[in-house]
Task: structure prediction
Amino acid sequence: MKHHTPDEFQDIRDAVRALCAEFPDEYHRKVDEQRAYPEAFVNALTQAGWMAALIPEEYGGSGLSMAAASVIMEEINRSGGNSGACHGQMYVMNAIVRSGSAAQKDFYLPKIAAGELRVQSMGVTEPTTGSDTTKLKTTAVRKDGRWVINGQKVWISRIQHSDIMILLARTTPLAEVQKKTDGLSCFLVDLKTAVGNGLTVQPILNMVNHETNELFFDNLEIPEENLLGVEGKGFRTILDGLNAERTLIAAECIGDGYWFIDRATKYANERVVFGRPIGQNQGVQFPIADAFIELEAANLMRWKACEKIDARENAGAEANMAKYLAAKASWEAANVCLQTHGGFGFACEYDIERKFRETRLYQVAPISTNMIFSYVAEHVLGLPKSY
Ligand SMILES: Cc1cc2nc3c(=O)[nH]c(=O)nc-3n(C[C@H](O)[C@H](O)[C@H](O)COP(=O)(O)OP(=O)(O)OC[C@H]3O[C@@H](n4cnc5c(N)ncnc54)[C@H](O)[C@@H]3O)c2cc1C
Result:
């Protein structure tokens, strides 16, 4: 397995940093205030090829490693941006790379790589079943050479800024399968034709400027060939992409964490109260040092997860642990940064309250912390399955 050194990806860091520098704090602040989508930023990242990092070269992507791709996401967040607007574009298509037919790969991947098609929505979560994914109730039934979809999803992100969604639905009733993970299938849903023709989208106003929605399927018909992967094995198709998703989000949290530490350190050095920089007080500097140490430790697990994925080894434990540690470390860094800034931390123009809200999400989505504990308890430590 290849081990990475911190300075290994300096060329990627420099290039992504240069692009991000064209979108300063004011840009991201305004997008947040207006609850808008960072269209210009995402377009610039796409046109520069960064969003196609994980698409194989034969399909027009750059075929980079997970480690290299994670540096891109880290740098976006470290620059003050929010990868949440576009990270789906980097990993959702993984399901097509891994499970798509030759025809699907030939059709979709070059268009995604060229930025002609956005595939950045994944529809899994449902309002009545939540984390208990295999109980999901949305169904897909074959009828006259088409699939007919009925049901409901919640918290499905970037629908309004995506052309295609990958949908998980039940194709064989739970009562008729031996394993509860069987009987689920994945589908490619063309959102432009679906909305208004069986698919209704209801945006959810939420704590962050994260475009996310409730979806209602009422006899939505999609072509038979839009089944992605093997019928009944869709849970596996989705799972294959999840370790990549968790590892990339861990890297985003690491980027956030360094952003908070940089801001806290700078302010603690500059702000003078009681005749000395506040950072001279151990009560101010120790929590910053503590948060930095936690972040550095979390970063080691992020690299370990990348290395395992790139070595094509099972990275389930490392990807989950990296996401847990990084989300926790970035949140602690956020809290310390806010505290260090005193009242000014609450002023929007400092961007701390925005990043504070943004980084908090990652202890809940795309998988909540308790589910990670549960995974590690059962699959790493051999404790009894708890649900
Ligand atoms: C902004 C945002 C964007 C999202 N984007 C997407 C998306 O694009 N696609 C998608 O499919 N989903 C998306 N999600 C959904 C997200 O993955 C879920 O919210 C998350 O997995 C938790 O599910 P839930 O909200 O139903 O919580 P629940 O499953 O209801 O759980 C609530 C709480 O109880 C805990 N809990 C539940 N059961 C147990 C147990 N057995 N043991 C211990 N603790 C337990 C959970 O850890 C959690 O803390 C998004 C969510 C948000 C907030």
Remarks:
- The chain is about 45% helix and 15% strand.
- The chain has a mean pLDDT of 96.
